[in-house]
Amino acid sequence: MRLTAAGETLNLTLGRFFTELTTTVEGLRAANVQQNAVVLSCEPSVAMRWLIPRLPNFHSAHPEIVLHLSVGGGPVEFRRDRIDLAIRRLDFGLPDAWHVQRLFPEKVGPVMSPQLAPAFASGEYVALGSKTRPDAWSHWLSIHSSVPRPTEIRFYDHHFLIIEAAAAGLGVALSPMVLATDDIDRERLIAPAGFDPDGSHYGLIWIGETEPSGKVHDLARWLKAQCKISFG
Length: 232
Description:
- By secondary structure, the chain is of the alpha/beta class.
- It has two domains: 36-105 and 200-231, Periplasmic binding protein-like II (D-Maltodextrin-Binding Protein, domain 2), CATH 3.40.190; 107-199, Periplasmic binding protein-like II (D-Maltodextrin-Binding Protein, domain 2, 3-Layer(aba) Sandwich), CATH 3.40.190.10.
- The protein is built from eight helices and eight strands.
- It has helices at 5-36, 44-51, 55-61, 117-122, 136-142, 159-167, 177-185, 214-231, and strands at 38-42, 67-71, 85-89, 99-111, 126-130, 152-156, 172-176, 196-206.
- Strands 2-1-3-8-4-7-5-6 form an eight-stranded mixed β-sheet, with helices on both faces.
- The protein is elongated, with a radius of gyration of 25 Å.
- Residues 9-14 and 20-33 have low confidence and may be disordered.
């Protein structure tokens, strides 16, 4: 059986029609998902080291919520980027229109592989610092005068890099507790000097309603519960 010339033309036309229809439906579905998604912005290192490992728990508890995660630090462009909630270290000016709930205090301390503990105790260690906080080691050492000084301080671009370097035995990283807590629980890292509050906090930020509602409320409640589990 062969199509006539008119049939061939109709077949091609219908083919294009169904292709365009499929594309349109998929586009509308994607747009609908985007509109119904909850968008959470989080600082990159916190997202990588603490939040993402816990997201399977969130998806299991709230399969009805589509969560889009974006990363960023400092001020948040809520309307431009359609962000519903943001997790930030509260070390910058906050507009009066923003709502903030503190999640946990920032605590910092030296972390290292268990094999480096003797070198840390004797001062035969390389200190690893993040370029985002270049004075952190100097400040920490100034208030811990009994700790032997390192042989040198080397800087990496981000905290998650110095933590991985510490786990690999390349030195002792001065790390926020939030970024090292899981590796300490797994005994991949140790923190023999503990962690000290630095006076700042991480917070949950949003705009609009005084309290989040609906799916955003469910996400905020889950985040606060996870912080309580991790940091008390």
